[in-house]
Amino acid sequence: MVRADLSPAAAVSAALVFVPGDVIKAVLCALVARGVHAASPGLLPERRWQGRRDPSYVSV
Question: Do residues 6 and 14 lie in contact, with contact meaning Cβ atoms separated by under 8 Å?
Fold first, then answer.
């Protein structure tokens, strides 16, 4: 904004041009990651549930 001599509204409108492409890249990245982890499920360690999220957790 300061370097380009833009008002905040003009800076936001100039940045909005990149949002659709960024959304497409994020969706593609999520699809690729899902495919990679489906093909190789042991890449990440299993999560350890804590507290109320644990299915075996019983509140007394």
Answer: yes
Asked if 10 and 20 touch (Cβ cutoff 8 Å), the reply is no
Whether the pLDDT of residue 23 is over 80: the answer is yes
Angstrom distance (rounded) from CA 27 to CA 58:
37
**Residue (of 49, 48, 26, 29) closest to 37 by Cα position:** 29
Residue range 29-49, pLDDT digits in tens: 999 999 999 999 888 888 776
DSSP string computed for 1-60: -TTTT--HHHHHHHHGGGHHHHHHHHHHHHHHHHHHHHH-GGGSPPP---GGGSTT----
C-beta of residue 15 within 8 angstroms of C-beta of residue 9: no
